[in-house]
Amino acid sequence: MNAESAAPLETPSAEQAPPAALLPTVKSSRRWLRGVAVVAVVGLLASALLWQKLSSIQEQLARQSADTGSQANEARAMARQAQELAIETAAKLAMTEARLSEVSLQRSQLEELMQSLSRSRDENLVVDIESAVRLAQQQAQLTGSAEPLLAALKTAELRVARAAQPRLTPVQRAIAKDVARIKATAFADLPALLVKLDELVQVTDELPVANAVAVARPAESLKRKDAESMASWWSRAIAVVHAELQSLVRVSRIDNPDAVLLSPEQSFFLRENLKLKLLNARLGLLTRHNDSARSDLASASLALARYFDVSSRKTQSAQALLQQLQGQMRALELPRVDETLAALTTAAAGR
Asked: What are the angstrom distances between the C-alpha of 241 and each of 125, 220, 246, 337?
């Protein structure tokens, strides 16, 4: 195409000069060719610019693609690391859960062991307190003093308070009630009771029996005194004879026929038997057999009222002393700690 378009552009020779009519056409063709050339040059420049721009875009895309690839590689590496970390974390989590389950199992076992130890400790505490209270009660009965029982109850109350177990609260309340009841109880003086029994034993020989004969007074001499007149002597003699006659006959009321039939020897054994009963009562007090001592005192009081002269002041004094002893014997009974023992039994049973 360029050869064909260039062929008409060859300068004609002088011999071949175009005619004048063709000159405008040639000029217009030249202009058109110049315009086409300019357009071509512009197109080339535009193409060059566009190629340069495309090259830069391509380079930028290549760089971006390389960056994206590197980022993708980094992302893959990070994803791989994350996956490995997730696997490791899952393994650690599984191990942690296994250890946690083991720790939970050990904790439950430890709690059961602690509860078992606590129950065992409470049971041992209850058994020790019950044994101490029963032993103190026996000591109190033997000694006749409430001090051992009070000391044991106070010690038990302190031990229960230190244990701080809710299931032992009824035991603590029962101990407090028993302590208050023992402190409010008035106890008899045992040495004073023994002294009174000794006094009764000593006066037993002086007590007159119901059929005792009055002691004969020495007979008054009937010899006439020098300054005495005959009339006064006769009066005195009559009075002496009258007194002697009265002493021969004695009228008295005895409700018990056995008391009348007592001989002097039997009266001696009666007094000895009364002494024996009083001594048995004294021995019962010393050995803390209060029921036996009370029975001996009742038997002695019955014998005193049955065989001895109740109108005598000595007998009445002995009876009053016996009644005092019997009344004070009731105060020798120590209060029982049944509430504490019942609460300890309930606590030991686990209710």
From this structure: 88, 10, 9, 72
Cβ atoms of 111 and 319 within 8 Å: the answer is no
DSSP-assigned letter for residue 251: -
Q: Which residue pairs, CB below 8 angstroms and at least 24 apart, start in 292-296?
A: 293/329, 294/326, 294/329
Identity of the amino acid at 161: A
| Whole-number Å distance between alpha carbons of 349 and 126 | 10
The pLDDT of residue 263 is 61
Q: Closest Cα to residue 293, out of 248, 337, 326, 339? A: 326
- CA–CA separation, 222 and 238 (whole Å): 10
Look up residue 60 and give its two tokens: 């930028």
Q: From CA 192, how far away is CA 198, in angstroms rounded? A: 10
What confidence tens digit (pLDDT) does each residue in 292-346 have?
Answer: 888 888 888 888 877 787 778 888 888 888 888 887 777 666 677 888 888 888 8
Q: How many other C-beta atoms lie within 10 A of the C-beta of residue 193?
A: 21
119 φ/ψ sector (left φ>0, alpha ψ -120 to 50, else beta): alpha
